[in-house]
Design brief:
By secondary structure, this protein is α+β, with helices and mostly antiparallel strands. It has one domain (6-123): Chemotaxis protein chec (3-Layer(aba) Sandwich). The chain contains 6 helices and 8 strands, in the order E-E-H-E-E-H-H-E-E-H-E-E-H-H. It has helices at residues 21-26, 50-63, 69-80, 97-103, 123-133, 137-145, and strands spanning 6-10, 16-18, 34-39, 45-49, 82-86, 92-94, 108-114, 117-122. Strands 1-7-8-4-3-5 form a 6-stranded antiparallel β-sheet. Strands 2-6 form a two-stranded antiparallel sheet. The two termini are 31 Å apart.
Length: 149
């Protein structure tokens, strides 16, 4: 699965938004209704199809030692920030208030397809992030996609 693109949406008064149909067309048939919403290390949220979230947790538990204090603390923080969410019959997704507060989301949002997840940003946060980083695009393109010396 490869999700990509930038999409805009607006929350209603109940913190719901209509999932853009173009994103849904990029998801496999069985991954279009049930998701897990997770805090990101950036000021945004990650939305995983449920099947991808399960694989992410498997990978996480293979990498992080749950018998170390730091490992347990990380796993708690990582998983405590996650909540299951589902599209309703109108194709809307409800963003829980604690997660909206974490990401600074109030009304206008930007959704970014990022391979196997969707990032959900407050539009103001995303605009500021993009302005601060866009100047590096050419440099990063060469660094990450250019040929090795």
């Amino acid at each position: 699965m490869f999700l990509f693109g930038e999409y805009r949406a607006r929350l209603d008064t109940k913190r719901r938004f209509v999932m853009p149909s173009l994103i849904l067309t990029l998801l496999p048939e069985g991954a279009r209704a049930d998701f897990v919403l997770q805090r990101s290390p950036d000021p945004c949220l990650w939305l995983y199809p449920l099947s991808v979230w399960r694989m992410e947790l498997e990978r996480l538990y293979q990498k992080v030692n749950p018998f170390s204090t730091e490992g347990r603390s990380f796993l708690r923080l990582y998983q405590a920030g996650a909540q299951p969410v589902s599209l309703d019959s109108e194709g809307r997704l409800l963003l829980p208030k604690p997660l909206c507060d974490y990401a600074g989301i109030q009304s206008d949002i930007v959704l970014l397809g990022m391979k196997d997840r969707i990032e959900i940003w407050a539009e103001e946060q995303y605009t500021a992030w993009k302005a601060a980083n866009e100047a590096h695009f050419a440099e990063w393109t060469q660094k990450f996609l250019g040929e090795a010396p």
